[in-house]
Amino acid sequence: MIALQFVVTFLLALTVSAHNVALPPYGRRCFFEDLNKGDEISISFQFGDRDPQSSTQLTGDFFLYDSNGKDVLKASRDVSYGDATINAPTKGRYSYCFSNENSNSQTKDVTFNVHGVVWIDLDDPNSDTLDSAVRKLSKLIKEVEDEQSYIVIRERTHRNTAESTNDRVKWWSVFQLGVVAINSLFQIYYLKRFFEVTSMV
Question: Which family does it belong to (predicted)?
């Protein structure tokens, strides 16, 4: 039973993807990721204390720099935990640092995770990943929806034109019927007067 518990614990330890680093007093630890334009990177972190007897929550600073390493894209100061997400505006090496520069704590460490979403060129004919296929399918479905929307609008416009034309034909037919009826009544009245015999006294 103890051996089984040891094996399970060992296998679970292999699946842990979090990173853990110690921060030196008044120091910092920096890491980097190479990103292409449009890639997304998410970093979650937590400052902790390696001393099991300590009951205080340690804090630190976090900085995320752009590809030239000078401009700060995200900053969190004097926090115990946090996260940051960016979309890379340009291709390059983006660095992130955990700072302990305002503290002389010997036991401060940082646990952090890095997640990323890699941008895929949908027009790249050599891209045959599942993600690329799903995005291409989504793009085609959107195109079909747009075409259906265009067809619905075009059908509505044609129907309105046909109904307007039918309406005009109807009223023109009513007008013609009225003209024929008035003309017939006038002719009857005129012919009746024409053949009417007048007697002179």
Answer: Belongs to the EMP24/GP25L family.
